[in-house]
Design brief:
Length: 541
Amino acid sequence: MSEPASAAIKADYDAVVVGAGFAGLYMIHKLRSLGLSVLAFEAGSGVGGTWFWNRYPGARCDVYSLEYSYSFDEALQREWVWTERYPAQAEILRYIEHVADRFDLRRDIRFNTRVASAHYNEPANLWRVETEAGEAVTARFCIMASGALSAPRKPDFAGLDDFAGTWYHTGHWPHEPVDFTGQTVAVIGTGSSGIQVTPMVAQQAKRLFVFQRTPNFSIPAWNHPLPDHVQDAWKRDAAQLRAKAKATKSGALYEYGQRGAFEVSEEERQREFDARWARGGANFTHAFNDLFKDRAANDLAADYVRGKIREIVKDPAIAAKLTPTDHAIGTKRICVDTDYYATFNRENVTLVDARETPITRITQAGIETSGGHYAVDSIVFATGYDAVTGALTRIDIRGRGGVSLAEKWQDGPKTYLGLMVAGFPNLFTITGPGSPSILTNVVMAIEQHVEWVGDCLTYMARNAATTIEAEPKAEEDWVNHVREVAEATLHVQANSWYMGANIPGKPRVMLPYVGGLGVYTGICNDIAADGYRGFAMARAG
Ligand code: NA7
């Protein structure tokens, strides 16, 4: 690859966008509205990102459909009709496809194209983005919309290649429906994906083995069709409701308890937990305002759910195995399920304790553990993702002086606001590490980032700036702030993917910003209003 050295070189595009999920699509739309030329690369054959790939049975969002959708276009919001309280993958994908059509976004997206590298050409002040197929384009700005849960953790079990049956990863599910009828199936992993897929497979398979290494807390979804009156009321007040949601911690209209768990009587606390369990979903963990800070308060909520598991699961020994004891509730992503715990009452379902008897290898016929062999026809790996940073570090991103992003982040990601990285001018990371991203209703976090970047590019154009870059000191301060805020919570104690703990060798760092979307948006806006404090801008020549 020969790098042009002239500062006068003209870029092929104003911006390259990597990814065409919720973030990439809105970014394309935003860039176009600013009159900028854009090309997006998308590894999938269609739009949708996470919702394109995660086609496993039971895949469903754990945020209400009315909230887990774009707010930037009123007409779009008014015209789209959701059918259920929590949207299933197929419906979300239909929605995203509708958005792509409605705003005619596909013509600027190159599908089936995975980006291999993005290198900053310093003298020319542009990014050279190369695909795995060897095609290269140049752009003034490179915007990573590559997703926070898009780099599946490839199953690294010995012997997998010998397996004579079929295996699947929930994050890379086939387009054709998979039929497990009459089969003996193994599900490995009991995070959100495992908890969603397990009841569905159990209904179909002859026999199901669920391999659980660590139990997780799950709250029932009580999913149901969305009544017209609820949808109409939402649409009527959408502007106000969206503004309210964006100002909250999670970017969603949960009922955020204003009192500590010990500020109320035991009876009142019980009523609160009962009511939240009856309403279902992640709202449960917002019952009191100290659940993420005070372990004793958290234990009360955790004990409540442990009690529910004992109530639901008939065999006390299995209930005990399904009961989480290693982390505070909510410090690992809370799961939202339909019939997960009850599935273990079924005759055809067996829970295998992969902590007591770890999986040692995959054989031709099934799964070998230290406690015995399980013959299976199919394996479903629900083993998760190299979250938040994985999609970025899997691309060879190089900034000034050829420094690689993966190397710079060896001891943990360093960003300013989760939006930019010192040494990587004109590179933006939508919902990057150090921003609220996956701790929120991520569509709201995406909109906030895309709009901030749009405003930033407008400001640069007005001021004839050609380069923007995070200042090292601002980045260092932000990284420290992100850490300090996290350390004041129970999150840092858990072995969660939020903490990078699911990937061997990944530095132990709280990846998202725990300060809350509302607070974070205020910080971003103040920084912009203050002439993009902490960012260095330069003009051409
Ligand atoms: P998660 O939440 O990272 O869950 C992965 C699961 O896979 C978890 O239960 C792991 O157990 C398990 N796992 C991983 N490796 C092994 C081995 N070797 N043996 C047994 N079990 C293993 O990923 P999900 O896809 O469920 O969810 C990711 C997010 O997507 C979710 O939180 C939502 O935000 C959407 P472990 O806990 O490591 O013991």
